[in-house]
Amino acid sequence: MPAVVLIGAQWGDEGKGKITDYLAEKAEYVVRYQGGNNAGHTVKVDEQEFKLHLIPSGILYPGKTCIIGNGVVVDPAVLLEELSYLAARNIDTSGLRISANAHLIMPYHKRLDAVEEDRRGEHKIGTTKRGIGPAYMDKASRSGIRMISLLDGAEFKEKLAQNLEEKNYLLERVYEAEGFDLEAVYAEYMGYAERISHLITDTSLLINEAILAKRDVLFEGAQGTLLDVDHGTYPFVTSSHPTAGGACMGAGVGPTRIDQVIGVCKAYTTRVGEGPFPTELDDEMGEEIRKSGAEFGTTTGRPRRCGWFDAVILRYAARVNGLSSVALTKLDVLDNLDTVKICTGYKYQGETITEFPHSLKYLSQCQPIYEELPGWKQDTSSARTFDQLPDNAKNYVRRLEELTGVKASIVAIGPKRDQTIPVIDIF
Ligand code: IMP
Q1: What is the distance in angstroms between the CA of the first residue and the CA of the last residue of the chain?
Q2: Top mutation candidate among 227, 239, 240, 306 for ligand 1, by most atoms within 8 Å of CB
Q3: Is there a catalytic annotation at residue 109?
Q4: Model pTM?
Q5: Whose CA is nearest to atom 12 of ligand 1?
Q6: pLDDT in tens, 8-60
Q7: Short-list 35, 22, 382, 39, CA closest to 240
Q8: 307 belongs to a structural domain
Q9: How many domains does the chain have?
Q10: Above 80 in pLDDT, residue 396?
Q11: Which residue from 107, 291, 317, 337 has the fewest beta carbons nearer than 10 Å?
């Protein structure tokens, strides 16, 4: 009865929503542990498509307990919107619980996110402007407002007043933007409190009790390894810990309780926002992958930058997350290609590098070294077992395993639930 952490092994958008949905059929608890509504998960159930940003994708199955952990930053307006969206589509959301320690995204966080990005000019990060960074900044500086404060109006108002004093000064005097009115924000958030207070609880206790009772628990990461504030391509990262260790911190469980870590990665690489990307394809091939992979952001609609699979990144993800296996997604996107390339290492100033460089400057000067494999030129989307894949597709997967040192436990060949090939049992 395992506790499994599912993380993004690249720059996010690896298809974690689909794999979570697949595994959530068996798991009883699904837990989000970091990030906020900067994430976007698209899940296809029969002919219906669901787009979720905050609520764990496990909610699409009846009877699951879905948890927003303490490490998540929650915009209550988005949460309520998502609850209404699900209710309108007859999805039962009664299993949702939110950590009392999760921090709230406030209206000033969103405005600060926008004005700070503008100020950065050519050094912009390319944030989603959802207020994520400023909310985590307040958490770290110990001035943030947590879910638990929504349960006590007087306490909430006092914290809000303290915050507004500083944020309005910053917005109005430094950024020459509009500030916020205490009573208006207070009234808005008390309105949210009325509708979500009953969901707020000690989720660490809930999760640990579930693990002790040998229930299957799935921790669903958002974003990806290279967007981790410590292990990613800093400063072009998000402000939380999408890596596996983040699950412990962001859910309140100890590392000894985790049984497996699955890294979700695409059969190629994508990235949104700014920052170096060694295998980026700035040509027709990149355009073809973007088109056939529908590589446009779920949250912002931005076109994603596309490139070949980078085994250096995957080896790095295997190291910092302690990957037990990999879930390889979107293999079908490569179906029509004559040949497929895999980056096996980088050239840096004439030297061959096989480990992901820790310096961004260094990374931006790395040239990919490619190995070229024959394509399979066959539709894989109806394969249901690994053996049903064309030989060249199998060879591609096996070569990725060799180069990264991690076995594939799942291969996905389309957006639908049944377009998922189990290779190794997880639950
Ligand atoms: P933030 O998380 O909005 O602060 O954005 C910081 C960086 O992370 C930007 O480069 C974003 O494009 C990127 N990012 C944030 N969330 C996601 C995601 O879910 N998928 C891919 N990139 C993301």
Answers
A1: 7
A2: 227
A3: no
A4: 0.96
A5: 273
A6: 999 999 999 999 999 999 999 999 999 999 998 888 888 899 999 999 989 99
A7: 35
A8: yes
A9: 2
A10: yes
A11: 291
